[in-house]
Structure formats: structure tokens, C-alpha cells
Here is the input.
Amino acid sequence: MVGMGSPSAMTTLPNQTGAPAAPAVDCAARVRVHPWAATSLGSAEAWDPVVRATVDVLLASPVPMALAYGDDHVLVYNDAYAELLGDRHPAALGRPGAEVFGEQWQAPGVGGVIEDVYRTGQPFLEAETQVAVARGSAGQVEQASFTRGHSVVRDAHGAVVGVLTVAAETTQVTRRLQSLGDLTAKLAAALTIDDVARVVLAYAMTSFDVDHCVFAVDDGPAFRYVRRIRGEMMDEADERLPPLWKRIGNDPASPLVAAAQTGRPLFQPDGSPLAKIATDRHERRIRALAAMPLRTASLVGALTMGYRTAHTWLPAERALLYAAAELVAQAAERARRFEAQHGTAQLLQRSMLPEHLPELERFRIAARYDVGVDGNAAGGDFYDAFELTDGRLAIVLGDVAGHDVRAAAVMGQVRAALRALALTDPAPGTVLTGLDRLVTSLGAESRNEEIFVTVVYGVLDLADGTLTVASAGHPPPVVRRPGTDGGPATAELVGVPPGAPLGLGGQWHTASLRLEPGDSILLFSDGVVERRHRPLSEGLADLVAAAAAANSGDPRNLCSLATAAVAGRTDDDVAVLAVERAVALSRSATMLVPAEPTGPSRVRQWMSARLREWAVPEPVIGAAILCTSELTTNALLHAGTPAQVHIDLSAERLLVSVADTGTRGSVTRARTDTLSSRGRGLGLIEELTDAWGTDPTVRGSTVWFEMLIPPR
Here is the structure.
């Protein structure tokens, strides 16, 4: 048959006539030897020229095509269409469609479409159809998406003699479009550049199945980037940790830099696109690369995807990459704007809070501040602790209503005024009266009578532990006392006479109590205990219960417990300040650990020497060194800054804290449940310590743990 091609030299199979058959996968050879005379098509030598040309085109096409000829729709198809037929091939060749598909022929979108086009002569396009296709040598069946076009075939006289079906598989395109929708949703929820990086890298690896992906944004005169490669070990904890950013200069040989700076995409189907700038074997193995610029009014960056084999970047794939790059660029710009606003608001907030609390021989002090739901806004909560001129200690915790820069500014004025008043005359009544006048003046000056400020303020005598405290509309403190004769600890609200908030011209009365060795006092903002749809009394009761159930009265531990004591989410900021009167003098030491691989080893040696010098029991030493090494490694690896390790030993407990001064690529701290590069840190800390927690600050974060010292 002219134009049908010659039979392949491959192994042949018997056909219906017993003559040698063409190879199982070569439909052209099968068509050539098929007994067409027994079908409505008739002998191949007598085929109409148009039908012959249609069959020639069909057999030469790489996309699935089939001709349904005549009133009985005898099938002629190519190799690609044979794959869709599965085990119906090769018996389907030359047989009527109704016989091949049986009852399925009557199903919507199968025989009915062919018959309608054949009868009416009108072409029909099926936008997308799900077809079960057997894939691979194992014949695994999977659902694939196809777009099918049906058009009539007319003979040389113009009569309709058949229907030609062309099927274009759109499975990959469909899945990528679906993944593009998922990308849009996930990017909408990404707050920081770290979040955007995690989303983008996961999208590229899963949707495009690439071997190498890089996301980069401008960082001053250069760029910083994060990379993902195929086969990289990434567990659930790694996915939540801050990505490990690296820096790259303005090297014009880098496709990433070229795309970012010029704003033009680069598509290389084969070659060595990263050979000149490769830093390891993974980059040297990349042969095909796409580099998409990420450009907005305030951001310049790039996204690259690479394969270790040659890869043709088809128009549809390029269009998808253009769309994805546009989404990523917009998300990265939003994230950068959020980080700038978030950092400014938080720096404003933190700059008005004390950077260091007093270090005293017989008293320990700790504080914690957690932003509310809107971490992008400044708030009005504040705390302070400072030594007075007569040697006593002033402690204060207050709340200015509002979550904006104005509230933070008022908070700063109140805190500064309180210090000035207390250093002149520390009596609680005098200090609150002076603050009341200040708030009244601020309200009149701004012509706003709605400035609402509450404060609890106390003066602690460091010699005998006597605390005199007064409240201006603020919740009363909680006092925790250890149990006597081995009994359980107790906690209760201090009976402070209620007073009016500042600015209302009220009068304030004081309450006094004595902190014995082992006792602790906890000051807190209303965000700790207030919850929607719950009485305030329930929140206060939960806080008191949590304080009583604490393993110790250590102030850092109490602050951590207080912020999580009441179930449910709060929309308000949370501030807590705790002071403990120590049973005995404690010993402490601090080490600054450089951000280098030998850091954890140095910490272990230093800590081992100190704890043995202090005669700490060996079981405690071993567990403490293991936990400290884990926290130090985490800080150095994922914060990328030097770490400060502080140990404090008292008669009843060992307290260890590891502080860093930032995280890579983010002004927000990593979640506390993502310790360790392999996710084992959290379980280790929980298993070996009696209490642990994190103290977030804009200057970094501190992770600490406490171990009780067994009685000798």
C-alpha cells in the first residue's frame, strides 16, 4: 500500500489470516497487511485518495489519532491511540467501534459523539476527558486527561465517509494547572520570605519533577538564594525550619543572576548551563535549565529549574513558568513588605522594653512578651524592673489599649515617666498619681479621652522580701509558694485593692506580702487570661492552677507556663514578669559560641568542666550537656549567628539557656517545635528535662530548659 511504510524487522506475531504480522507496536505494518476487503473500507488498493491520505497522516502522527470509517465505524488508528486502547489492541484494528467497545460504546462521550459527527457533518471538540490508560511494562492503569477533536472525513466527491478523532493528552498540563492553583493558595498564606521559599521549592520539585531548583532574591548589591535538589533528605521538621540561605555575587556567568538583572527568561534544552559557576557535583550534572526573572517595583530575583537530562521547554510549559514566576514575585514582594513592617513595629515595641533585667544575688527575674494575632502591629503592653536609689527593686507591668504605633508611643511615655517618678519617690500611691496626671494630659493634648492605661506596680525590699503593690485597673499578681514538708506548691491571687485605670483621677491603695525563700510573684497582662466567650474568673483560675502545678518557681519557667496556661487563642498581646526569691545563692556562667563547626564541641567541654566544678550530679551533667549541645547546634545551624549559652545553678535546679541573635532570612523566630535539623531535638528536650520553653525577641530567640537537682 502506497505511503503505509515497510514492515519492521522486529519479531512478528500471527494475524487473523495466518500471514506474518507486523510488530505488536507498529500499527502501520499491521494496517499494511490487514484484510481490509472483508470490511466496509474494502480493498486497500481501491481506497478513495482522501481516505488514503487521511490514513497516511494518521499513521505518521505521534499523537493519538483514529479513523472511524463508514456506517459501522470501522477503526483505523496509530501507535499512540493503540496505547489508549490497552488490551483491546490489536484486535480492535479493522473492527466496528460498537464491537470493540461493547456496552461502553453507548456511554456519553464515546460512540454517541462519533455517530453525531458522522450524521451531522459538524466537528466537535471535547475540552477534557478522563481516560483509563495502562502505563509502563507492568500495565498499571491510571486516569489520564485528554482533549479530543472529532471532524468528518469526506471522500473525493464530498460525501461524509468517516470521523477522524485526534486526542491530545493534557494530563500533565491539567495537573500543573491544578498545582498552579495550589501554589496561588499557599503563596497567599506565606507571610515571610522563608515561607515563600518553602512553598516555591516544594512546588517546583513536585509539579515539574525537576532535579534542581533555586529561589533567589536581591540582598543589597548581591543576591541570597536557597536551593533544593533531587534526593535531598528532607523530613517534616526540616520543612518547617528556616531555609538555609546562601549568598551569590553579581556574576554575569550565572543564569540566575542574568535573568534577575535583565528581566529576561532563559531556556536551555541541553548543555552545561551551570558549568562556569558550579559549586558541587549536583550543579555540574545539570544539562537543561530554565531561569525565570522575579521582578516587581521593589524586588529583583529569579527562579531556576534544572534537569540532569536534556529537556525541551515546550510553549505550554513556558507559559506555565511565566505564570508561576509572576505569582512568586508578587508573593515575595508582599513577604518583604510584611517583614519590613513587622520588624519596624516589633523593633519599636522592643526598644521601649528593657533589654536586660537586673541581676541580683537573692532574687531571680524573667519576663516574656508575645505578640498577639496581628504580629505586624505594635502593641501597648509593657513590663519593667529596675533598682531604686534606696536599694529596693521596682517591678511593673502595664497595658495601653490599642494595637498601633500610637499605643506603643503612649506605652513608651508611660514607662519612661514611671521610671522617673519611681526614682524620685517610689511609693506606689505617689507613682500612680503622677502617671494618672500624665495620661490625663496626653488625652487632653490629643483631644482623645479614650486613652486607656492599666498598671500594676510594686516595690520589693531585697533585704526581707517584703513587697508593696498597687493596681490601677490591672489584674492582681499571682504569688506561688513551695509546699512545706514535701507537700504540693500553692498559688493564689494577691489581694490588691482594685483601683481605677490611669487618667480617671482615682485613688489607689496598696497591699503588702512577704516573699519567703522559694516564693515567686507573677505579674501578667490581661491577654494571658482573657478569652472570648469565657468569664475572666475562669482564666484567672487556670493561671493560678498552672502556677501551683509548676515544677519549680523559677521565673523563666513561670513566664513560659503563664503564656500557655489558659486554653484558646487570644487576640491580645501577652506580657508576663516573674520574680523568685532564691532559697540560696546560685552560681552562673556564660559562654559566647562562635558560628563555626567547632562551637558545639567547645560548649560541651566548657559546660562539663563548670558543672563538675560545681559538684552537679553526674546524671544531670550528662543529660544537660546533651540537651545544650542539641540547642547550640540548632542555633548555629538555623539562626546562622553566634550563640550565647548561660548556665545558672541553684540548690534545687539547673537552668540552661541558649540565645541567638537572629534567623536566616526572617525577622520572626522559628517555631519551637522545630528544634534540630532532623526533628529529634524536641523529643530529646522533653524527655530529659523537667521544663523547657522559648523566649522570643526581635533580636533573636532564646531556648531554655530546667533540670531539678535530686536531693543528696
